[in-house]
């Protein structure tokens, strides 16, 4: 028992180190209460819908989301737009299809089954239009950065003047939370930039929170199902463990009495 | 062992068993005499079997949807995560299952190190185990390449490049491994094939591992042979089955926690960025279970010697039954060895930690010291200790600690733990 | 006394087995369900076809759920012929109006109901389709008239979303 506890302490410490070392930056990110964190975390539907609006109006001109489909917008566990709303969103985009019977590619309005249309044809086109920097695809961006949600939330609010002695090249901006502090994306958010459909005040902080929530869902669309299933699974396992424990004690009681 | 005396109860059973003695085998496995004093460190063999089956089943189902092509691999994994029914669940079980597999195998190995399970007559079981461990590392390494993220690509590049350290033929071997002039699609497709194959090789070796075990029977915490099967052992079913079941359930709770609540914490965020041959990540690190070897590799400044050191660190284990000269099996009765054992545990954990850090400054120094100590433990400490150590008197038999004092297990355990001080 | 103990022991073991079995079932289901059509496949369950360029007497073939669908715009003679066939002459009796709600348009799966080959257009003895694999003849309503096929070519769910577009599925 003593050995077991020793080993458990060592393992927990090690995992603690691993967790700490993965957040290599010493800087503290801005924090907020994320509805999706924790054992019972869920997405705030309103925040997801507002977040989609921010993505659509501000980010999508440069950032693609190529692994999302328009139908995802109306599926359970996400922004849960109505099917009609999702269809309308899809139809507002032109999708390349074909070849037709003449052998040519053509464009048509988007359908629910289509993937999100990309702002640029390919990575090189995106780089060319953005001073050599590729605006990363955002489908899994939150998972592609350590402490992703807090990182993106902070970065969007982290633009400030460079400290004394730091000079920036043409087209480069200073951001307090960006890895290396230099970022080619200019500050995108300003108060009131977007007019929220539900009347929420579109402050920079609010938009940062909403779009980050949306990005979290985009990266983990099944988060709510995962949490629900996790709760049921662990409760089930605990119950079965207790039953098996008592069965074990019952069976092993025969051994001791024989001695 | 009177395996051959078994006759099936039913006529059909007897007819079948005469032609293929599966029922005899099943009877042997259920009646198999197991020492009654095994503690929970012995449950990890069963847990490992569960891990292997889990990885095979989830791997098979993933393979129905995964596309092993550089242009489609990353996307196919996202397709699994988003569109395939329960795809996210199967993927997270498989990815975290690999970590759980290694957690279990390290506990299993360290159990053997503590209780001398590698000693005669169990040397072959131990060596088969080392081979299984090597295959596990190969399978895990190749599996990690398959999603074709940044870590997949660059981890593959770094590790395959190691082979260029071999004099004369090194470069040729690397090109041969890659199927090209860099890690690219040919590398991915062959890694997928081999990743699919290896678990079945492991399965075969596990059968041999258990077969070899059943010849002498299990070791046990006091490390002495079974004197009287009727007194010292219990039949595997139901006693060990239920105990292994209980331990497995506890293990599954930990597993479930990772899968459902922290599915990406053991991975690396960079692997959610698609592979880019033109951009190297700031810190290339393997998965946590390979970190100690990564640390050893980087602690040696010479490329070839670093590779040699890393491989030696694993291969040295093959010679362990002969390096450890002690006649006493279990560390329970070897107070000095016990101290060195815990220092080794700490040493391996330290190696793991510095393996995740940049290979410079204080981290590099610690890695070098820890690497040197690791080899010192096996090459110097163990052989010397066998001769020099004053061991504690060992009991007459497994049940003797009970007969020698109180009929109460608790009191006997108390006596054992007092000895442990 | 021993009896009570046995009852309690049996209940414990029975309960453990039962709870365990539930878990096994819960684990097995995702493994089976992952082989069912995934969300992206289900999203493509229906196809919209532009038929504005299809003149009377012409058949086009489109792909729907991976299979060919024949869309024929029938001429007046063909419609009259289709409607005039007596039910006794049919192996699989089906009225033409039940197969083509709008008699001008025949929409059906271009898959022979015998063993799955694709029948050839405007061939065969009944002015319809002919399957070269084993010699099934279909009429101008897609009904089996001669040969080994057991049933008429299947009519999928479809509707005209507007004058020029048919949505299949």
Describe the structure.
By secondary structure, chain A is mostly helical. Chain A has 7 helices and 4 strands; from the N terminus they run αααββααββαα. Chain A has helices spanning 2-22, 45-59, 83-91, 123-129, 148-157, 204-219, 223-258, and strands at residues 94-97, 106-109, 173-174, 182-183. In chain A, the strands form 2 sheets. A two-stranded antiparallel ribbon of chain A has the order 1-2. A two-stranded antiparallel ribbon of chain A has the order 3-4. In chain A, helix 2 packs across helix 6 and helix 5 packs antiparallel against helix 6. Chain A starts with a helix and ends with a helix. The model of chain A has no long low-confidence stretch (mean pLDDT 91). Chain B has 421 residues and is mostly helical. Chain B is 65% helix and 1% strand. In chain B, strands 1-2 form a two-stranded antiparallel ribbon. Chain B starts with 10 loop residues before the first helix and ends with a helix. Chain C is 29% helix and 27% strand. With 169 residues, chain C is α+β, with helices and mostly antiparallel strands. The radius of gyration of chain C is 26 Å and the shape is elongated. In chain C, the strands form 3 sheets. Chain C has a 4-stranded antiparallel beta sheet with strand order 5-6-7-8, with no helix packed on it. In chain C, strands 1-10-9 form a 3-stranded antiparallel beta sheet, with no helix packed on it. In chain C, strands 2-3-4 form a 3-stranded antiparallel beta sheet, with no helix packed on it. The chains are: A mainly alpha (259), B mainly alpha (421), C alpha+beta (169). The interface between B and C is small, with 13 and 10 residues.
